[in-house]
Design goal:
Blueprint lengths: L10 E3 L3 E5 L5 H8 L16 H14 L2 E6 L4 E9 L14 E8 L8 H17 L3 E7 L3 H9 L3 E10 L4 E11 L5
Parallel strand pairs: 5-6
Antiparallel strand pairs: 1-2, 2-3, 3-4, 4-5, 6-8, 7-8
Length: 187
């Protein structure tokens, strides 16, 4: 069962990052990482062609209240985003009745390979299970996205099924893998 999530008053600190609600003043940092080819495409959206397109998406993040900005402490720069969205598992009989969200994330290419996303995702898992009261989280990755696959495995998610995701913004279907993490088995 999908539930509403409001991140507007959330502030989480990890060892190297701060997760907080987006601000209009984040536009330059957002455009900087979202305009790099390959960043958005790993998540199903085209890299941003203009600051105006970034501004529209930033406005939707602020209005939607379900996306967090990832700020790197060492330079106080927004380097990515993490959001909670409706989960594919809400339509699965096996998970009916569970309070569940899908976690999705994007990170600036400049910060790939440093172990930041597992650190960030684990902090959000704790928030979701211990504060928000979710019963489960799901996530997925395109079959070619080995970086996300490693994050998902490091965070304790279990593989559920192969699937296909239609990336509307890219106008194509992409084979992906779906995972779940149940609160009752999370350590």
């Amino acid at each position: 069962m999908d539930i509403a999530v409001d991140f507007s008053n959330i502030h989480i600190e990890t060892e190297r990052t701060i997760l907080r609600y987006w601000k209009e003043t984040d536009i330059d940092d957002f455009f900087e990482y979202a305009s790099v080819e390959g960043v958005g495409e790993m998540a199903g959206w085209p890299h941003h062609a203009s600051k105006e397109s970034s501004k529209k998406i930033l406005d939707s993040f602020i209005a939607g209240k379900n996306e967090l900005a990832i700020v790197y402490k060492a330079n106080n720069k927004v380097i990515g985003s993490l959001g909670l969205h409706p989960s594919w598992a809400c339509d699965e009989k096996e998970y009916a009745g569970l309070k569940i969200k899908d976690v999705g994330y994007t990170l600036s290419k400049d910060y790939w390979g440093q172990g930041l996303m597992p650190e960030i995702v684990k902090s959000v898992i704790n928030l979701c299970f211990n504060t928000i009261g979710l019963d489960a989280l799901t996530c997925g990755h395109f079959i070619s996205n080995n970086q996300s696959k490693r994050v998902i495995e490091k965070c304790g998610f279990s593989f559920v099924k192969d699937s296909e995701f239609h990336a509307k913004q890219l106008n194509k279907s992409i084979k992906d893998k779906k995972y779940i993490l149940l609160k009752k088995i999370y350590k």
